[in-house]
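protien #1 (seq + structre)
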Amino acid sequence: MNIQDSYPNKIICLTEECTETIYLLGEEKRIVGISNYAVRPKRAREEKKVVCSFINANIDKIIDLKPDLVIGYSDIQAEIAHKLIKSGVTVWINNYRSVKGIKIMISQIGLLVGKHSKSLKIISDIEKNIKEIKLSSSKMKYKPKVYFEEWFNPLITSIKWVTEIIEICGGKNLYESKNSKSLAKDRIIKNDNEILNYNPDIIFVSWCGKKFKKEKMLSRKNWNSIEAIRNNEIHEIDSSIILQPGPAALTDGLMIINKIIKNWYKNYNI
């Protein structure tokens, strides 16, 4: 028996970070179905069948593909997982919400597809980069105040791994107490006076799955008094990069946020 036959050969990825990770591990041949939000790598959409969005899935289509493993993410996909398990499908759901958790997820997927050593190399490269950025950030005399907006109606602030990335890069994120909450409803900002009083130096925006419209933000009452808005420090980050708990957040997402914070620090001669 070939040792590779000991690992799942027909995997369905219900979320994009799973797809990205398996492609990075060079085991994309094992994937038979993906989410319609999967964009990393771009060729995944051309090569694999789309079987779900984030909160909805074509259960019959998934069962017809006869997967030996379905991988999903979080309590939000609990109903999909429940239906598949009741249909006799093996399902693995990770529920990590932190930088550490993302690294654990990469390691676990490496184990699932027989590429644990390669997954540890990916993690090692990520940790090396984080260490270098932390060292650089520690030399900053002032930590810019940061507000990260994940949604606009209602206002929702960032999840834990995003706050951790901002802190790694030298920023101080508003609503640290909310950032540890896994559910979006627990990260709702009920009174934007808190943001006005905080007066952030930098605003990051990543409206999950929706293009940011700057005029919406500028039309909010008294928001034109915010330092970040007066200095044009409003930065959109693609949600496929920063709001997915996978390699993209800890590579491209980390580098984007680090570059913006470092440029701000340089420009304002703090």
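ok now protien #2
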Amino acid sequence: MRTKEKCFQAKTIEEAKMLAAQEFDVALEEIEFEVIEQPKKGIFGIAKADAKVKATYTLGKAEIAANYIRTILDKMNIENASVEITYVDGGAVLDIVSDGMGVIIGRRGETLDALQYLASLACNKGDSEYFRITVDSCGYREKRKKTLEDLANKIAKKVAKTGRTSTLEPMNPYERRIIHSSVANVEGVTSRSQGEDPYRKVIIRSTNKKPRYNKDNRDRRGGRKPRPQKQSSDVFMTSFEKEYQRKKAPEITADDKNEKNYDVGLFEKLDI
């Protein structure tokens, strides 16, 4: 926190206090006053000396962040810009109102995120208690949140249906929290962050088990049906029929007796 001190003079103490409130641009209740000199009246009630008060104002972290942003906007030559402070639990929201909204927001809110990061560093410097600063402009944060929720819901349903993992583009921590929160509402999928900032991204994957390959269902996926195997007729033959159909050795004729040997079957010879 930072402190501002200044002395103010006026005909009355009340007028001096009003000058201090106008100078610090805060309510009277936020300023501590110390009366240094009382107004002195001369003859006929004419004021002889003005009242003098010492005003002390301690800037809160939200005011420090707002003043820091005003300084940057001046350096960016953005005219007619104002910063409105709204206090929330554990921090404050700084809403920038200006005609140059596109320049302040930047591509996908990158300039707005940079202002938020720098303002947070400025107000939390040297203090162990963290004060959350959110910088917005013309309701951009709420619109971006709705867009991310719709995107996460659409991709999560697609992953649950196809089973294919999907990787989103790099996002800041605030946007990744929105994605994780939306994915948690879709059954059958899960999400996790991977990588290092500023390239850290969200990965959405299915939690359903992949179906096993089944030969009987090949035709459902466009494949060929397995051909039925032909059963051999030997299965239904008796041992007598098998023996009858077996290839027999050729009969020995009179001409063959003069030969020394002759072939029998395919594998052996018979000596005569």
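The mean pLDDT is 78.
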